[in-house]
Each structure stands twice: as C-alpha cells, then as structure tokens.
Design a protein that fits this description.
The chain is mainly alpha-helical. The chain contains six helices and no strands.
Length: 106
C-alpha cells in the first residue's frame, strides 16, 4: 500500500525530508485515513511553505477527527492566504461532522 511505502521511504531519508515529500505524505496519509499523520506532515510543510492547499487539507483532517476549533483555525489560515470559496468547500462531506459549528463570516 502507498502509505506503507511512504513510511519506509521516510525512514530511509531520516531528517532530509523535502517540502514535496511532506506534501505527498500529507496527501497519502489523508487518503488512507491516517488523519493525525496527515496533520503532522502538513503542519511541517506549512511552516516551510504556507500554501492554501496544505491548510485546507489540515482543516479537513481535523474535521474528520471532529475537532471543529482546530479545523476553524486552519480554515482561517487558508482564508488569510486568499482562499474564498468556502461555500463549495464546506459542502464537502469531509466537513459533515462539524458543519453546524463552522462560522467564517468574520
């Protein structure tokens, strides 16, 4: 499975992990429902290069973990970077568990 291959590659790289690797790890972890691992990789990648896509995926992971407050913080990060299409994004099933408490009007 892709997730296992990714973890094996990471162990061989030790500390020499690139932004691109972290971005891939975030995506593969998310798609294989390893949400905390996706959050960890995404958070490191975001510190290296703040990107909307990374912030949104972290928000989706927190939503999957039913952590609305953390999801909101990352949605705000995406908003601060220029993301605007929240109506379409929040219609995504990833936000089902927290949709009722999300407020991005401010």
């Amino acid at each position: 499975e892709a997730y296992s291959v990714l973890l094996e590659a990471e162990s061989r790289l030790k500390e020499d992990v690139s932004f691109e690797f972290l971005e891939m790890k975030q995506l593969v972890s998310y798609r294989t429902s390893h949400f905390q691992e996706s959050i960890n990789a995404g958070s490191i990648a975001f510190r290296i290069r703040p990107e909307i896509s990374i912030a949104l995926m972290i928000a989706m992971c927190y939503a999957q973990l039913n952590q609305a407050e953390e999801a909101m913080l990352w949605l705000e990060s995406a908003k601060n970077l220029g993301f605007q299409d929240f109506e379409k994004l929040l219609a995504c099933s990833d936000f089902d568990s927290i949709r009722s408490v999300i407020d991005l009007k401010n």
